[in-house]
UniProtKB/TrEMBL annotation:
Pfam families: MFS_1. This is MFS transporter. Its main location: membrane. It is a multi-pass membrane protein. It comes from Caulobacter henricii. One of its GO terms (molecular function) is transmembrane transporter activity. The chain crosses the membrane at residues 21-44, 56-77, 89-108, 114-135, 147-169, 175-198, 231-257, 277-298, 310-331, 337-356, 377-401, 413-432. Residues 22-439 form the Major facilitator superfamily (MFS) profile domain. It is found in: Membrane. PROSITE patterns: MFS. The lineage of its organism: Bacteria, Pseudomonadati, Pseudomonadota, Alphaproteobacteria, Caulobacterales.
Amino acid sequence: MADTATPSPVINPVSTGYRRYALWVLLIIYTLNFLDRQVVNILAEPIKQELGLADWQLGMMTGLAFAVFYTVLGIPIARIAERKNRPMIIATSVAVWSGFTVLCGFAQNFWHLILARIGVGVGEAGCTPAAHSLISDYVPKEKRASAIAFYSIGTPLGTLVGMAMGGLVADAYGWRVAFMVAGAPGVLFALVAAFTLIEPRRQLAADIAARAAQQISFGAALAVLATKKTFWLVALAAAVKAFIGYGQAPFVASYFFRNHAAELASLASVFGLKSAGFLGLALGLMGGSAGVIGAWLGGVLADRLGAKDLRAYVIVPAIASLAGIPLYILAVCMPTALPALIILTLPTLLGTLWYGPVYATAQSIVDPAMRATSAAVLLLIINLIGLGFGPLLVGAISDIFAGPLGMGAAKGVQWALIISSLLGLISFALFWQARKTIREDMVA
């Protein structure tokens, strides 16, 4: 069995210049995707105070309510994307999730927010499976991890903008206006996607187009995935990573507010800001920038090292998963806020290295006619486990330590963050195990 990747045939459904344009448009759309998904995290404390919510309800609002519909609807929409116009699917999705983000600002109670967040999840379900499939048609196989990693930069970039913008707007005008501002740009980019993105199946060579046009049943697609041990190992490893990342995200701001409130107020006053605005800006700029670098670096490392040994696609995220654990624990155990914020950038960078390698692996081990389905199944596993249960369970752990164990809200959220970070050991083990099968599955 060869250890090196074989370059794919040269297929140019679009020009190099247009490919760059399309990748930038998709990146901006995915940034808006995560902006609308994550802005709620910096708004969690004021929402909790105004509506009188518990931490588990914050977890439900930010996680399970969104994730169930996001993951379940991803598969039927992906099946449509295997044969219909993917740019139009993406455009419709952007319009829907943006509209429901705006509606979050009109919520009067917990259940209003739940319904609005469900709507955001319904809209976002159509974006990434279609986008991954589209990118895989735009670029050759040997550059796929880098291209998908570039698209995946939207995750930390959207989080950056969401945290910074959300905190500043909430300080000035309240959390409701922050939701409205977050949702507004989506209307414009829905039109950009609809009228400027090309469906490349029309430009592909006849033999490749014929393969892409083949209708593979969902059962047959699952049967193919069932034979790919690498897919399931990588999917579960990424799901645990998502559980950690999504689970901790709604409570990082709460951790700083509850443990370092006086210092935050002092630091914020230096810049003429309130605490929420300063913290959102700090977490957004420092954590978001680190996440962008990590997502880009993961794709580049996987493609370059994978050209010599395909196992690099799982070794890179395995090492990153292990290295991030002690750094995260160190950050949340710091006695002061500023060192904690600075140290937190390192596990954030390492925590995004898996995006490119994992999503590229899912695209590279299946036939073109089932790429969107492969992406949707992968996202179902990642998001149902990670986004669905991560925030809910981390919030529940925080409530248990704060209440029944009598540690108080500040220590409760701190221990919830520490305990959840230790799950990175499971991700490391699963990624490391995938080294044994990835060469066989990718070459096949």
